[in-house]
Amino acid sequence: MGLIFEYRQILIEGTIVTISLAVLSLLLSVGFGLLGAFAKLSPSRGLRRIGNRYTTFVRSVPELVLMMLIFYGGQALLNDIGQATGLWGYVDVNQFIAGVLTLGFIFGAYMAETFRGAILAIPRGQIEAALSVGMSARQVFTLVTWPQMVRYALPSFTNNWLVLVKATALVSVIGLHDLVWNAFSAGRSNHALFTFMFAVLVIYLIITAVSDGALRWVDRKYSVGERKA
Amino acid sequence: MEPERTFLEYLRDISETTAPLDFMLIFDNLDRFVEGAWVTLQLTFLALLLGGLIAIPLAIARAYRKPVLNPIIWGYTYAFRGTPLLVQTYLFYFGLGQFEAVRNSFLWSPILSDPWWCVLIAFTLNTAAYTTEFLRGAIETTPRGEIEAAKAAGMSPWTRMRLVVLPSAFRRALPAYSNEVIFTLHGSVIASTVTLQDLLGVGRWLNGRYYLAYEGFVTAMLFYMAIVFMISLAFRYAEKRYLKHLRPRETEKSPRPALA
Predict the structure, then answer these.
(1) Residue B257 above 80 pLDDT?
(2) ipTM
(3) A209 contact B CB<8A
(4) CATH class held by domain A2-222
(5) Full-model pTM
(6) Please, what is the average pLDDT of chain B?
(7) Which residues in chain B are closer than 8 Å to A185, comparing Cβ atoms?
(8) B214 neighbourhood in chain A, CB within 8 Å
């Protein structure tokens, strides 16, 4: 316990990196998810196919493999392009950016499924009614689809967020100084890896428990008009 | 004059110079990838098997709210489901050596100092936690009528569990279990972070050895995609077979009435 207290600074710094990584990836994944959901529901067959390929591909490849491919392969690709075109010199891909891009891309696919299900759960008649009273497509989305979509999507959204938080631990493998990496290096130099890994588990548990509670509160707010059976 | 080249040499030349991926190098190392796939499949399915066996009694105890056991099991599943598998694996593999009692115990040299066993233990406990929870859900949603009918037929609680509750709960849990199998497969890449040569481990080895950026990861990725594809096919077959009663009934096609 004393050891953990002594190293609190480095653990707190790591926790901040982990949380900001998770939040930025979440924002990106919501963007990808909305695009994916609209592609999967679009009347155009080409877009539907792209959307379906995206979600199937992500579901079949482990996160860490994709992360390494984007981190190492993306860097080589960027440098090859730079060399071929002469537009830029040697670039180093930042682990944080690689992590955000990978996690955003992966969880975008899960979000796309979540949003698609939520949009489908809205009765078609409401959208028709909104259009018939002269609302624009944009108004239909902001006033009718979105508020209800949030309600329907929230349970699955919560689940995705919790999985995302746990997936952030993987960026330590490509060398980002997140919570796991910091705790690991502190633990190794002190021959106390159990103590430090246990502390990491507790910190993750606190993050997941707090966000679970917070999202439950949001759920209650958005389903005020709903009657629970 | 240019010497004659065999087709294979020609292929090698293209592969090394112009092709975006050095496919001949991948081809030469294919046997290593197959070995890696074997390690991955072994870890995944052993963890699923052992985890499933552990999960059944735990799920029953949770579903029937057994006084002392229920909160303990809830704590276990909550802790394992709320934390990353990577950290759990590190805790077992790197962490346990911190204690002298563990290092001196009889379990140390054959099991707890071996990454393979540590990974298997971590994966098993992790998948058991998830399986317990959705199996509990499946047991709790057993239709009341089925249990009443079993009681009316004079079945003892144990027989009821064995012949009525569990078979129907397994069926209801089947779609959720396909996700769990795929997630366990995805999680198994963590084995490569503790020096095991699973699929990703072989990919990382290849890239490190030949100083490459894509080949190893792309090959590993294709292997994973193939495995996931086969798992999905197997589940589609299983759902067809075991959830047949839930599919909309196929009506006999009536011959189109002749037009007047």
Answers:
(1) no
(2) 0.87
(3) yes
(4) mainly alpha
(5) 0.86
(6) 88
(7) none
(8) 69, 72-73, 76
